[in-house]
Design brief:
The structure holds two protein chains of two kinds. By secondary structure, chain A is mainly β. Chain A is 0% helix and 49% strand. Chain A has no helices and eleven strands. Classes of the chains: A mainly beta, B mainly beta.
Chain lengths: 121, 107
């Protein structure tokens, strides 16, 4: 069965960076894109970007351009997201999600459990 | 960016009620519209993709309709486990925006 397992909670100081991992299993890692979505406390889901795990192409929301990077390690079937220059506004649960490809109209069919990132001085 | 607007933002309903949630896109997105259910402290779960296709394992009381800019999620007979927040999302173009959510509460 498809599983996405994320790394554990993080506490960071303002100005620092955070890197979260998302390990995939149960399917061919390079066949489906991985997306990152975050949710601040009490707020809506916010799409951040995605990576084509086959060719390493990425697309980011302009809101995060310049301080957000998605990478992947195909040998480990793992995707990573790194967010820099953190502020308190970045305190949120960060999710990775796998889309269903073209047959699923690129909907997000599988999700990781979420990683809480807290930014506090 | 394409703006996704859901209505209502919240609703109260009883078990057995028929519930309808709407989602409007700020421009045409064809059928690239998906619905998710999220319970407190949990990751979202895909219910409906491509506006009207039921995701595997999702009960048939959930249905979706619409195309272009206007979409609807319907729960035909609300069950206790359906009390949650529902989000629409478009995958027509990046950024893949979500609606603000509709919280379904117990009356």
């Amino acid at each position: 069965q498809v599983q996405l397992v994320q790394s554990g909670a993080e506490v960071k100081k303002p100005g620092a960076s955070v890197k979260v991992s998302c390990k995939a299993s149960g399917y061919t890692f390079t066949s489906y894109a991985v997306h990152w979505v975050r949710q601040a406390p009490g707020q809506r889901l916010e799409w951040m970007g995605w990576i084509n795990t086959g060719n390493d192409n990425t697309k980011y929301s302009e809101k995060f351009q310049g301080r957000f990077t998605i990478t992947r390690d195909t040998s480990a079937s793992t995707a990573y997201m790194e967010l820099s220059s953190l502020t308190s506004e970045d305190t949120a649960v960060y999710y990775c999600a796998r889309d269903l490809g073209s047959s699923g109209w690129y909907s997000l069919g599988y999700w990781g459990q979420g990683t809480l990132v807290t930014v506090s001085s | 960016d394409i703006q996704m607007t859901q209505s209502p933002s919240s609703l109260s309903a009883s078990v057995g009620d028929r519930v309808t949630i709407t989602c409007r896109a700020s421009q045409s997105i064809s059928n690239y519209l998906h619905w998710y259910q999220q319970k407190p402290g949990k990751a979202p779960k895909l219910l409906i993709y491509a506006a009207s296709s039921l995701q595997s394992g999702v009960p048939s009381r959930f249905s979706g309709s619409g195309s272009g800019t206007d979409f609807t999620l319907t729960i035909s007979s609300l069950q206790p486990e359906d009390f949650a927040t529902y989000y629409c999302q478009q995958s027509y173009t990046s950024p893949r925006t979500f609606g603000q959510g509709t919280k379904v509460e117990i009356k």
